[in-house]
Recover the amino acids of this structure.
């Protein structure tokens, strides 16, 4: 693991997700840009001190010298955005598979270079768009792909948070600090941190790509250096349109990602507040409440579920589903039986490139007086 | 009553609302542009046949000849939009108070003329933006006005319906027929029918006026002659921004108006699905579920509530609240004690003018390649 | 109207319910045991002072002298329980139809005498078990009667309130005062006031009669003279069993009547908090959310609905549905075309007798050390 | 691990829960009474074949011969109820700590013997009453213990499931097979399987012991050999009373454990459907929605939460909290610093004894004609 030291939120999430199913062992790490903090984290995690490194450069160097069967096989990168591309490139160059937090990189250029390197090396590269790991998101995607709703017309996705309603970044909050700092976060604030999740989810579930956006990015909290609020009108392929909201100043909201998709014959609704439920709304029928753990859901949904109906699964399980899919691909790679990468159903470097393009497009649109801006891939 | 014949939806609503509190009697009507249907409706309603008229012109003419204490005192106009302004003008000219369905008129010009006439005559003129009659909408407005949330930042209002997902207007549905016909409905389809409700509610509750919009109106169902889907980015006074969604092609949705407002210190959420509830979300506090019929709500909320907590009130009660407020004004007018019209807290001709301007602005914005369009009052 | 003066809750409800559909006029009343308060109420209601009476005896005497076509046709009795039977008997003796609040009477004997009188006179007699007027209660009953769930197995009904968590009766609260006073309320406190609603609803929807109960009645608040809390195990006809909860000391609860019925193949759930929704739960299927105002519900459901889907109706509308059904029967009676009384689908004197028997059975069971007590009809 | 082979539901749950936080390694197992199935499970789990045993007797024998620092330290017992006591006794005799699924044993006698052995050995013994691991259950218990609601009055706990609505046990379902078989499950069916969870949760949260019950156990599905449905009136210490429902024939229900507790000044509600939420209902206040991951909850709640607000945690996380607490105790034991066992806040052998006594009491009460049966400890 690279990153994920004492103040990290997402590092612990990656570890829990990797451990949950007993398929991954954490054997080495460079947990912080501070050597001391890295050692401290490694000790807390009970790692062999010889494999707790002062920097990721040291990690790559020393692991490379280990015999192949002892060496780190895959690297989880959970650093702030500006420290994504470099360790990811080096991991690939050292023959390690990579699972990395979103957004993929600091900017679109880095993202494209990473994609090139992934293509060259043929290694497994996963991006943790965690929400796509939820079983009912799989069900939603499955039902839409099966044509249940006819041609899609409207896609509404929203991701309201309230935690940045104040200048937390000036009150010593590490998470707020780097996420609102353009030198570490990149060109997007809210639009990068949560807007990319929302856009990715909308595209993943609908199967439609965003083609044009009309964005309104705001820096609501005075003195902040990045947008903390984003709204956009969207145009998708095949005539669908929609709205995206991603805001971190909806004071009192938690983390309430919500997706609604409507087609000619009905629609669906999924909310992160109640992630084991998918509402299916067909014209002139009662709304149907689909639930995880039931017999009537799709195979792909079942595959991403651990428990019978009525036993809630949550964020860590969704996250772990991405780890499981990544792990399957790594195993297949190792035994020389890698299938088409899309078939493993985890977010890839391509999703990462689209995410970085989305940030760029949204920022450009927001700065423009013209209504529509083409997706800048 | 003018309009409200056999195929009318809103005519029956107005009658129930007027009757509910025992304060209004229905004594006369011109219920349809068809004399026969008007008589039929009058008979069903048990009216004196002498006061069931073939046309509203006849109504005004004949009622005017009755002694003042027998004559119709106030007229409810519940016709399609293109038959709003004419009977409303004539009612005012005949000294009758008017309560009229929204949107106010066919276009902004008519609306302005009506406003002029109302100002001239000093008669009472109410517009049934029904949702503003809900007790928890009063509570929301009250709490915001009291400064509970600090300066407002974000306003999200949405009004998804699914009933126009097909070409109902070609299947003999009267409601769909006039509402999708520009010669009867005016320049706006969804934006006029439900978008005006959404905009009015957002302004009423927040106390902030919309200053600019960036709209995307769509005619989703092929062959339809008016928009059936509208989305817009909004800029309000005092730096607040927001999003408005009003769509009639969200297949499977009912009539799910929802408003969320966020300020510096918290926010609120109201949904038409559960109208007796108002969620109050303060930063770092549990969400508080405010409910109608309780002791802790504001006086204005109590005034608009009939039942103790736990006894649901609905759409007709909200509608009736507008009738009650209108009735109070009429009574005060009659005894020469009319107070400032705003103090009665019902939607007025001014709201109607803003509604028509909103439609015009949205249509113009949607046709423009420029991002922002100023509110065209 | 008899009762329904200044401090009455249910009097206003009856009036709103009667007025809502424009089918009833309030023309006379004896609104209080205090002549002064009766006059005051009549004046507020705008009645002809000649028909506001000092007592219900006076009402019957004077109305009887009016010409038949001017005379009160039906009487609404909304007094405390101990003043139910006497005015009801006198109304029937004077040839007036009766609509009366529940529970029917002070005790079972009175109830049986009333039933005898109703049978003798053939007049229309309705009991306002208001919750049975909800459209989704009609739908629930319809679906069960149609055999959708197979043989019924479990019936859970609960009615938690919190308003009597303190000794409100000692703080000048009129409602609390008579409802906790055995000399005015009868043998049952919570069990009479809300337990009868719960039992009636369970029987009405399931179509099954309670045969045995095992009750635990408690007087939770010190110094109170009647039960304020009741729970019971139930045995129904045809092998079904269940649980009933009716408590007025569930501090923080409003008025949350809830019914769940389960059969061999599925079950249903209805909650007063969201009365326009009925959850249908079939084995191995998604839960189906049935909603009022839709096309797919039963005719009887549609008949009890005024508005299209997504327009909430509430308690007054449900109450008004009982008035409408009662009015239909009165009209048919008047034109000599009365059908079988059950066909009008309003609660009758028989329901009232069962309600009084229920109270008696519950009290006796609670006082007994034997587990099961037969229903004492 | 003992048990948890191919057809086990709870075995996988224990493994996920143990793994989630990276604190436990699975090193050995006797996964089935069939040696072949045990080996198969061990292979699937990637265990060293030398430590996959044909029986738990072999496990104890062979592990005992390993050097202490390699030997199994704690045993998870996840077999059907009739194979609980024997391996648990042997584990304790072999100096191993035990974590065991509920109910504790086949009958009360076994339970008492186990308790005796635990007391003698001083080893750590945890019982996985999983629902007590939820953070909002901790919060509920904390708020009640702090006196927020005053003296407790009413406790309603219900646990409706629908999965045994048919004779699944005759259709080859392994779970249904042993759970409805008195020779494997013990004297209780639904009352043992889920009733014990409900009773334990009610006692844990309220801090009050059940003193008397009046139970109605039913075998609803024809031909079944154990109760599949249980209801009971409850009397708790200190004057509180309540109702318990535990049924497996509520067709269409999932696993909807729900607890409501009411005191003099308010109450709380927790539902397994939405486990990260706790409703706090104080008299004359808005209902407060407490949520996991927030700053305002108690320290014990925070300790049992992994993620910030808005990131749902579920059943596995709650289960893992019990493993974490058990692991803390084991660690303290190992370093000779064991604190008072209650302080670790996991369900102990005492809870297990109470659970078995609860089953016995419920069965006896159901067979009795006397209303109340004392808790048979």
């Amino acid at each position: 693991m690279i990153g994920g030291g004492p103040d990290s939120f997402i590092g612990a999430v990656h570890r829990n997700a990797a451990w949950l199913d007993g398929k991954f062992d954490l054997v080495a790490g460079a947990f912080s840009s501070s050597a001391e903090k890295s050692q401290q984290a490694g000790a807390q995690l009970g790692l062999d001190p010889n494999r707790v490194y002062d920097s990721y450069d040291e990690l790559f160097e020393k692991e490379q010298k280990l015999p192949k069967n002892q060496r780190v096989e895959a690297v989880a990168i959970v650093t702030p955005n500006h420290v994504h591309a470099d360790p990811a490139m080096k991991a690939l160059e050292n023959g390690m598979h990579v699972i990395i937090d979103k957004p993929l990189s600091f900017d679109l250029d880095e993202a494209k270079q990473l994609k090139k390197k992934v293509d060259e090396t043929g290694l497994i590269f996963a991006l943790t768009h965690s929400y796509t790991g939820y079983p009912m998101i799989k069900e939603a995607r499955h039902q839409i792909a099966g044509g249940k709703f006819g041609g899609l017309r409207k896609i509404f996705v929203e991701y309201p948070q309230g935690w940045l309603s104040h200048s937390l970044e000036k009150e010593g909050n590490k998470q707020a600090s780097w996420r609102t700092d353009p030198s570490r976060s990149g060109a997007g604030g809210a639009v990068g941190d949560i807007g990319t999740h929302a856009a990715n989810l909308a595209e993943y579930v609908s199967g439609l790509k965003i083609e044009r956006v009309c964005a309104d990015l705001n820096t609501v909290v005075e003195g902040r250096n990045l947008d903390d609020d984003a709204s956009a009108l969207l145009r998708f392929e095949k005539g669908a349109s929609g709205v995206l909201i991603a805001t971190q100043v909806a004071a009192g909201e938690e983390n309430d990602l919500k997706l609604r998709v409507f087609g000619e014959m009905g629609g669906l609704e999924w909310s992160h507040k109640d992630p084991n439920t998918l509402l299916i709304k067909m014209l002139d029928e009662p709304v149907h409440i689909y639930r995880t753990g039931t017999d009537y859901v799709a195979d792909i949904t079942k595959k991403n579920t651990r428990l019978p109906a009525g036993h809630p699964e949550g964020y860590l399980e969704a996250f772990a589903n991405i780890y499981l899919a990544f792990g399957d691909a790594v195993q297949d790679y190792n035994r020389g039986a890698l299938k088409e990468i899309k078939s493993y159903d985890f977010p890839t470097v391509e999703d990462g490139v689209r995410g970085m393009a989305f940030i760029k497009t949204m920022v450009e649109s927001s700065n423009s007086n013209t209504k529509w801006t083409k997706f800048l891939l």
Notes: The mean pLDDT of chain B is 97.
